[in-house]
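Bit of a strange request maybe. I'm writing a small parser for structure token strings and I need a real example to test against, not something I typed by hand. Could someone generate the tokens for this chain?
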Amino acid sequence: MTEEVNKKRDIKALKGESKVSRIPIKIIPSDPKRKPAWIRAKAPSNPEVIRLKNLLRENNLHTVCEEAACPNLGECFTHGTATFLIMGNICTRRCPFCDIAHGKPDPLDQNEPSHLAKTIASMKLKHVVVTSVDRDDLRDGGSAHFTRCIAEIREQSPETQIEVLVPDFRGRMDVALEELKKSPPDIFNHNLESIPRLYKAVRPGSDYQWSLNLIKNFQEMHPNVPTKSGLMLGLGESIEEVHQVMQDLRDHGCRMLTLGQYLQPSRHHLAVERFVTPTEFDELATVAKQMGFEHVASGPMVRSSYHADLQAQGEHVS
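Reply from user aminoacidic:
Good idea to test on real output. This should exercise your parser:
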């Protein structure tokens, strides 16, 4: 128990102020703004949430739901769904919108793919999302580990639909895409997160065009696997800039889109510039569908993996 408590303390020390202290554009600490009436999340404290958390801990697994303090954790866990976070819970990037810790990651857990597949099988999930921290310390960016996880899930749960939400594999795109050929997912997701004008502030260490090319190249290699991307709104972008990013995604073959409201995890993270209204989200969804996106999830509480099973089936999510 003491070791677990100390590990939690160590992770906490790698978040917040220490994480964002060395990014190019400095953040002035500010208390999170009061949320409007249309943003509400269920408290993650019911028995099913506790049961799933215990199951994850037993198998030494992490979820992005917990690590990134997702506001939908209570709702998703209650319905028996989760987005699994592989390759540890320490990231090599310092993105100031994200609540995941930054630092030197632990070595890969070679048993993680089998533990992940075992947990998914025991939960009898029909659709799973597998994502990861950035692992710039690995020669392949972690792509081989993704492939092993996909293969293990298919072995133990052949009916389960597998969606991956991948990092940008910076400097390793060719290697990563070749690796993913071995066991491609059912849906390939990579989030742009924001507009290019805000990239230096929002995604330091990432490149807008590189991310677009990753989506384009994967789609060309796997024309039968839908590609997907997502944006956070409320960081200072204009609606016209969002329209341009949506068009850029379509021009690069992206077929599915999520749009959601950015929420500030702590006073040391990027501040919310404004809360986008539900009406604006509905209008963006209409524009996206007119552009040709096959499936669009647009709403204040939408996240890239929120109701991912419904998104994959083409149902409206807002």
